[in-house]
Backbone:
């Protein structure tokens, strides 16, 4: 009988193509997206959470029976919860109170100890809350610290970038990724630049501090992650919340891809790059990341518009 472990299902996600969304583009311009909801926890954050846990185990910082603790907007927390259950760790998470009901329900199903923080402070409020508890009881918990832990970006350096390179047969010319913890952007970009320094690296973030793109940060006004390296980006694109909502609806209704808000925002940015190439008469192979699907966001009212 053949079987596979939970952890073995992380990574090697498919590369999606598009039909109607890109039909207006010349044939020598293509957009592809990594379908990260194919990971067992349903998001790209499985990669970082798994590598953070593996590194902590290797360093002797995390042992069976211990409690793993971190702040999260949801997806990394779900990955921690899933892997904690599989590997024998308790999990305590600080999460903004306005996280989607679906995400909170999933975390509670895993039996996670949840501390809800001020929704008006977003992910930064959760970061401050977890740091306060760690300062009070430093020896009681393993603080995963996803925003400052190099194991976060290293996960994408080791897995996401090589997968993209192989799946495009080295033809990728542009990489587009949104900024949250920045782990996906930093790790993937660093490795892709090693494969081919000519690949253009484009970061994307909300166009203002007050936005509805869950999982992304407006870096100028947010607590900047310690792992973030802004020098990697050849340029940065602002993305509007309403454009992201509209794109989520379009991807569902025109392509059959029911994606999360940050995935839709990434598609907005990727299409901007593609349209610019078309205007200049240039060719390109653009790859972006779809961090998760829409199943954790279906209570959002914008779907009905």
Residues:
């Amino acid at each position: 009988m053949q079987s596979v472990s939970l952890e073995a299902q992380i990574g090697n996600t498919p590369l999606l193509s598009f039909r109607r969304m890109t039909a207006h583009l010349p044939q020598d311009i293509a957009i592809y997206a990594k379908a990260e909801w194919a990971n067992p926890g349903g998001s790209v954050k499985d990669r970082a959470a798994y590598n953070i846990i593996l590194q902590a185990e290797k360093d002797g910082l995390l042992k069976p029976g211990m409690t793993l603790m971190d702040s999260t907007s949801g997806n990394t927390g779900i990955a921690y919860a899933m892997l904690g259950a599989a590997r024998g760790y308790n999990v305590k998470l600080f999460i903004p109170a306005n996280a989607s009901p679906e995400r909170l329900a999933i975390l509670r199903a895993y039996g996670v100890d949840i501390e809800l923080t001020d929704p008006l402070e977003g992910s930064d409020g959760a970061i401050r809350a977890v740091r306060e508890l760690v300062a009070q009881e430093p020896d009681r918990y393993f603080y995963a610290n996803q925003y400052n832990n190099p194991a976060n970006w290293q996960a994408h350096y080791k897995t996401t970038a090589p997968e993209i390179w192989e799946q495009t047969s080295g033809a990728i010319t542009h990489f587009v990724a949104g900024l949250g913890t920045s782990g996906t952007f930093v790790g993937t970009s660093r490795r892709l630049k090693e494969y081919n320094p000519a690949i253009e690296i484009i970061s994307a973030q909300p166009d203002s501090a007050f936005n509805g793109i869950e999982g992304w940060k407006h870096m100028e006004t947010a607590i900047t992650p310690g792992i973030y390296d802004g020098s990697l980006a050849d340029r940065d694109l602002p993305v509007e919340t309403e454009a992201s909502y509209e794109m989520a609806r379009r991807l569902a209704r025109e392509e059959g891809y029911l994606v999360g808000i940050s995935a839709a925002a990434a598609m907005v940015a990727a299409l901007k790059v593609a349209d610019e190439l078309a205007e200049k008469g240039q060719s390109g192979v653009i790859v972006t990341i779809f961090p998760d699907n829409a199943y954790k966001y279906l209570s959002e009212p914008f779907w009905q518009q």
The radius of gyration is 19 Å. The first helix runs from residue 45 to 58.
